[in-house]
Amino acid sequence: MDSPGNNRMAKFCPQMAKSRQSELAPEAGAMFKSNLLTAALAILFTANIFDPLGVLRLKYLAFVLAGLSSFWAIRYFFLTSRELTLGLLLFVVWPVWSLFYGAVSGGDLSVGLTQTTPFIFAWLLALILPALDARRPLRAFYFCVLLLAIVVVVSFVLIVFLPENAISQTIFEYLTSLEGKEGSFGTQSFGGLEVPWIYFSSTLFLVPAFVYYLLIGKLLRAGALLLALGLTFSKAGLTIACVFGAVYAVSRLFNRSDKKATNGIAREGGKGLDKLLPIVVIAGIPLAVFLFLPTFSDDIKDSWAGNSVTAQVRIGHFHSVMELFLEHPSYLLVGQGAGVPFYSLGQSEYVQSFEIDYLNAIRKFGLPWFIGYSAIVFYSARRLIRTGIREQRAFGFALISGYLAAGTNPELLSSLFVTLMTLSYFAQRCFPRRTGHQKKPARMLNVMSLPSIDEAGA
Q1: Per-residue 3-state assignment (H helix, E strand, C coil) for 136-158
Q2: Cα–Cα dist 267/269, whole Å
Q3: What is the pLDDT of residues 16-56, one digit of tens each?
Q4: Predicted model pTM
Q5: How many domains does the chain have?
Q6: How would you class 277 by CB atoms within 10 Å of its CB: exposed for 0-12, middle for 13-18, buried for 19 or more?
Q7: Where in the sequence is the domain holding 181, given as residue range(s)?
Q8: Using CA atoms, how far apart are residues 172 and 29, in angstroms rounded to an integer?
Q9: Per-residue pLDDT tens for 281-298?
Q10: Residue 309: inside a domain
């Protein structure tokens, strides 16, 4: 026979279950929206990495998808009046003015549009990012770049070691069909050895991804990215990555502190073999590439000594743009205009872009605009580094390395770099100015339930 207490409990338990379900329903809905937004961003990142110039139209389809998904996040949109003013000036007013100024000056309007539309990505991301945990989009971005490294390494190995294989031949034929459209693809000769050249336009973004994974202790991923840089024969990218890696390895080797995990990140300290592993990765992988391609190291030396063909081209660009500024000092203030070419001794013809993108950005948009653009990068990096949290510091140093790498090719004003700097800017917004404790933005989608890096796997 049931007691009165049991009867009351039986009546009360369904009420508790219903109450618990009503509490979990909003959380489940928020998590679903968070995952959906992250998936849309991951598709956007992947499309921009593998189709940076939009030849396959994947870039535009992904942009539309992300734009549609932003309607679910628009209620979380927030920018201070200062941020809104600066954003409108740098990413709307000045580029639009430069576009019309360039058209009036005889520039190519269609080319000018391609030089100014990447800034739209900053506004698209500004609609979505406040709704997400600040770390999650950056993690997704670097994971998508890691996919590029895997594609490069696997394709290179298949083509070199299984040249007669049908799959290898299909991959090589497809990549060479993208020559001049999505990057540079074909073959290169090193000391009489013919090897495939697989260089996507987004290759230099392997550098910040390498720095990020190295600094959070994911050495396997960092090694794959460094190997991909070596196999793409990116002299500037490999050099910048090795410099950042060497500084980190030396500082870790002589660092006696043993800081415990913060925000789920593995211990920064370490003893014995743990401190030597980064050195093995950073030194061993380039050495293996140089042993496989003996003359590649000579090419790097010649480039930094100014003796290689590419170095001579850059020197010609430098002298030409300096002469342009001397002849037209006003270009330093307002720029020459988007879509306007200039004559460069580097290629002995009129060019729109060249491999010193810092100077090219000043030429197109002017020095004040360039200072503002660069200030956002270094402000974000400085704030992330000063948090003292290992992953945030990795985000900061990765952004700086990306800025340096992108400036060595016409990538500094690309949609991918605008994406990286916007992701990093919103990441640093989650931290108060005078403390290292993370600030939880109001109404953010289910931030506390997101997994840490260690939980997400190696």
Answers
A1: HHHHHHHHHHHHHHHHHHHHHHH
A2: 6
A3: 444 444 444 456 667 888 888 999 999 999 999 999 888 88
A4: 0.86
A5: 1
A6: middle
A7: 33-317+348-453
A8: 44
A9: 888 998 888 888 878 877
A10: yes
